[in-house]
Predict the structure.
Amino acid sequence: MPRYRMNDFLSISIAVLLFSGCGLGSYKHLEKANNSNADVTSIFDTDATSYIFKSKLQYAKNKFGGLLLVKLLEDGSIRLTLTPQVGPKIFDFEFTATNKFVVHYCMEQMNRPIVLRMIENDLRLLFVNSESVNKKSWWTLPDKKTLVQKIKTNKSVNYYFLDGKTGNLAFLESASGLGRKKVVVSLEDYVDDFPKKITLVHQNIPLSLQFSVIKRK
Amino acid sequence: MNKLILISLAVLISSFCLAQDNLQPMKDVASFKEKLEASAKETTTIDSDFTQYKYLSFLSEEIESKGHFSFKKDNLLRWEYFEPFEYLIILNDSKLMIKDEEDVSNFDLDANQAFQKINDMIVNSVQGNVLDEAMYDMTFKENTDYYFVELIPVDEKMKEYMQGIHLYFDRGDYTVSKIKMIELSADYTTIKFYNKKLNAEIPNERFSVN
C-alpha cells in the first residue's frame, strides 16, 4: 500500500470540514455506499504485538507527557500502561478478550469513576476491536473519494473515514446517537500502513491526547 | 503528576549524594555514612550521562532511554533525555520547568506545600542528609565492587508510590553507579550512570530551558 501523502490528508480534512456541520445531524450529508470488505475497527495491524507511543495529554492549560505502552497479548486481551519518563506509572489498564475493562493500577489523583470512564472510552475507541458492534454500514462523502464506515456500538456511533486512494484510516469520529460529535481522531503520516501520529480531541471538554509511535514490534 | 516527577528526582539526587550481587552485610556502616556525608559536602557539581531501563511485567523487553544529568549546589538541576525522544526537566530554586518538544510548562514550587516539601527533600539530600531514618528503613550491604543501600519508605507519601529503592555506590568515590526504583506493583526502573564528573564548572545558564 502506498505511503500516505500529506496532500491526501489535506483533501480529506477539507472534505470532512466542508461536508460535516457541527452539532446535531453532523452526518446527514453522508451517502449510502456499497458494502466494502475493509474492516477498520482497530488501528492495529497483524504483524506487531507491542507498541510504544510518545504521549502528550492536555487538559485546558495543563500539559503532561509520557510513554504509552500497548501490548496485544496472546489470549486476545490488550494491556495499556502510561508512564512518565521520570517516575512510577500513571495507569495500567487492560481490555480483556471478552471486552471487559480492568484497572490494574491507577494513580490516586486520576482514580475517579468519571475520569476512568472517559479514559476507558478514549482508549477503547483507539485501540479496541469492539465485540459490542451492533451494526456496520458503508457510506461516502459527497465527493465520492472518501469511504466512511459507520459502526453503532452500545455507547456511541463511530465514523471511520478512509482515504479513497490508500485505504488508510484518516479520521475517526465518535458521536452520540443523534449525530453530535463527541471525539475526533486524526491519523497522520502513515509509514508501513501504520500512522506515526494520532491526535484525539474531545469536542465538549478541553481535553486532547496525542500519540506518536516510537516503536512497533 | 509533577509530584511524581519531583519525588523521582529527589530519589535520584539522594542517590548521587550518597550511591545484588553476592552482597554481604556491610561491616562498618558508621564509617560508610561518615565518608558518604563528607563526599556529599565536598561535591558542588555533578555531571553524568545515564541510561534508563523501565521494566514492566507484561512486556518482554525493557524500555531503554538515554540522557544527561547535571546538578549544581544548592538547588539547580538539569535532567535531560535524548533518546527515544527529547524531554527536559529543569529545577531552578523554587521553579520547575518541563520542556516537551516546543511545549514549556512552568511550576512554582513555593505555591504548593507538597511540592515545597519534596523540594526541601532534594536540598537536604544534596546537603548530605540523605540517609534519613524518618523517610526510610535502611539495609546496608556491600561486595567487592559496591556499597549497597536498600531503602524501604516509611514516609506515608513515599509509600504511595514506591515499594523500595536500591542504591549501588562506587567504592572508590562514593558516587552512585546504579539506582533501582521499585514500584508498588514490583515493576521497576533502573538507571545506570556513567562518564561521571564531580565538581566540574557548570554555568548557571545550563539550568534554564533556553
